Amino acid sequence: MTDRSSGRIRDRIRRHKARATARNRARSKRRRTTVVVAWSAAALVIVGGSGIGYVYVRLNGNIKDVDINGQLGRDRPANVDNGSEDILILGSDSRAGANREYGHNAGDARSDTAMIVHVYEGHRKAAVVSVPRDTLVDRPACTDPKSRRPVPAQQLAMFNSAYEVGGPACAVKTVEKMSGIRMDHYIEIDFTGFKKVIDELGGVKITTTRAINDPESHLKLAPGTHTLKGEQALGLVRTRKSVGDGSDLGRIQLQQAFIKALIGQVRTIGVFSNPKKLYDVADTATRAITPDSQLNTVQKLIGFAGGLKSLGAGDMKMITLPVRYDPANRNRVLPVEPGARQVWTALAHDRPIPASATRDSEGDRGNAHGVVRGG
Q1: pTM strictly above 0.85
Q2: Is the pLDDT confidence value at 51 over 60?
Q3: If residue 4 lies in a helix (H) or strand (E), which one and from where to where?
Q4: CB–CB of 235/214 below 8 Å?
């Protein structure tokens, strides 16, 4: 064999080895990518299913649920199965335990923040209707969850009093009575839980177009871009005196802007590509929320969240329930008709909320709009 032939053979061997090495590296990279995708798509189920049961059991043990279906029975709107979902999300203003630093209530907790989330068929679009806590509604008869005694119905009761006198089930029953729509799920989060979740996420970046200085929420922000950690984020969603007309309506606008910023950033802050961070967030979140009994395990929560994973901030239309100030008391608001009915009718039929529904509403007016934007 000539030297030239031997050289050609050696070159072919080197090229073959190089190609094999490249293929091995590519396979290794694909394997690493597959592991990351698996963790991000269904990490908690995989951990439980692979024999590390401690993690799965611990997260399940964090969840404290409430049996809405059992408490309300059949006294509810029909369950329309058209592929859409309706979820009542409440932020509780309990001042018990770690929440005492935010003041004292004369009675029990109230629903400080209330949002009805309607996820349209196909789960690619959603509508969010914020209900001002000071809205005067006809509250139905409920049951005190502690004493088990009946609570009589009341006309023109403040919306957030439903939670105070009858707990989550009464809040759901009140929403269902005013909307005519059955809630598929209920999720509650309190002040301390909210702070911890934001901290675990590493904060949320927002931009303020003007200064915010609210003595009651203790929030001071100069105009510009900020990364809000838990305490500041809570201060923002509680701020009302220094925005808009100082009412709950301006605060709702801040809350909606913050939620859009949060949704827009969740996919970019490393949660789903970092197994430890994912676990830490999951551990904090499962302690922070109180879901209905249909979402009382990690598997059920993952299945529920999986149905919403395609929704981004731009896929959500957020409005305030059409309201006007009560002529007898400017600290209260009343639903505006026909606007409020247009909202509920649209959602009941899985249709977009028409622009005419909020035309005469005080809820989406005011200069609180645009004060906060996603960072």
Answers
A1: no
A2: no
A3: helix 3-49
A4: yes
* Identity of the residue numbered 77: P
Question: By CB neighbour count within 10 A (0-12 exposed, 13-18 middle, 19+ buried), where does 105 fall?
Answer: middle
d(CA 48, CA 284): 18
**Tokens encoding 326:** 């009560």
pLDDT tens digits, 3-50? 555 555 555 555 555 555 554 444 444 433 333 333 233 333 333 333
Phi and psi at residue 9, in whole multiples of 5°? -65, -45
Q: CA dist 119 to 34, 94, 282, 315, Å?
A: 30, 28, 23, 10
pLDDT one-digit tens code per residue, 291-334: 999 989 888 887 887 777 777 778 889 999 999 999 999 889 99
pLDDT of residue 245: 73
Please work out, in degrees rounded to the nearest 5, the angle formed at the alpha carbon of residue 197 by the alpha carbons of 297 and 105: 95
